[in-house]
Amino acid sequence: WWPLLSPASEYEEEAADLLPALLGTSDAPPHTMLELGAGGGSLAWHLKAHLTLTLTDLSPEMVAVSRTVNPECEHVVGDMRTIDLGRTFDLVLIHDAIMYCTTPEDVRAALANAARHCRTGGAVMVIPDSVAETLEPDTHTGGYDAPDGRALRYIEWSWDPDPTDNSFETVYAFVLRTAKGDVDVVHEVHRNGIFPRASWLAWLAEAGIDADTRRDPWGRDVFVGRKRA
Questions:
Q1: pTM over 0.85
Q2: What does the alpha-carbon distance between residue 188 and residue 87 come to, in Å, rounded to a whole number?
Q3: Averaged over 182-193, what is the pLDDT?
Q4: Which whole-number Å values give the CA distances from 11 to 8, 16, 119, 145, in the listed order?
Q5: Which of 85, 128, 148, 212 has the fewest other C-beta atoms within 10 Å?
Q6: What are the contacts of 69-75 at 24+ separation with CB within 8 A?
Q7: What is the pLDDT of residues 80-104, one digit of tens each?
C-alpha cells in the first residue's frame, strides 16, 4: 500500500530543492550517499541519478518496497541509531524518519551514527518535519489509485497533547479499497519527537558536524553541515 500513500511523484519538487545543498556542501564533489531511514525510497528515486545510494531502514517491509522502486541501489535493514556499515560516505541524509527519535538520547545517537558514516569533509543533512519553534496542529489528506484497481485515501492529523514534553502525536486514518472493491479502514497513532532548533544545532556540533539551518519552501528546517576533522 505504501506507493499509494507516498509515491515518488510527490518528492520531485523537494528533491530539486535539496540537491544544490547536498551536492554543494562537502569539500569535493560527492559521489556516494547513505540515507538512514529511507523508508519506501520515494525521495531516493529522484537522487539516484546524481549519486550512488545506500538506503537503510528499520523496517524490512519498507526496504522491500524501496528495492522495487530503486533496484539499482544497495539496501540494508538497520536502525539509524546503531547500524554499522563499516565504511564512510561523501554524504549522509536523514529525512523525516528522524521524527521517530522521541528522546534527546535517540536523536543524539542517530546524529552521532550519521557523522560516524560520513567521511571527513563530507556533509550530513537532517530534515525533521518540525522543530519546537515551528510545530503547529495540522491536517493533511491524500492518496492514490493503482492500475490494478486498488486505491488508498488518508487523513493525517497532528497535534501536541502536552507542550511541556518532547513529543507530539499524529493520527492516521487510511481507507483501503482492494482490487475486488472491498473497503477497509485502518487507524494508527504515531508518537513523534520535537526539539528546539538550538538543540539540533548543538547535537550536530557534538557529533562533529558544523551545521547551519534554513527554512525550505514547506516551512521545515533543513540542517546541513560539513564533518570536521
A1: yes
A2: 36
A3: 98
A4: 5, 9, 27, 17
A5: 148
A6: 69/3, 69/8, 69/40, 69/41, 69/42, 69/44, 69/45, 70/41, 70/44, 70/45, 72/48, 73/41, 73/44, 73/48
A7: 999 999 999 999 999 999 999 999 9
DSSP assignment letter at 145 = B
Separation in Å, CA 164 to CA 7, 96, 195: 35, 22, 11
| Cell 523496517, residue located | 59
- Rounded CA-CA distance 21/109 in Å is 24
Angle CA 79–81–85, to nearest 5: 70
The residues with which 124 forms a beta bridge, in sequence order, are 92, 225
What's residue 129's pLDDT?
97
CB 227 within 8 A of CB 209: yes
Compute the distance between CA of residue 14 and CA of residue 35 in angstroms, rounded to an integer: 15
Q: What angle do CA 58, 157, 159 make, to 5 degrees?
A: 95
Q: State the Cα–Cα distance between residues 51 and 49, nearest whole angstrom.
A: 6
pLDDT at 96: 97
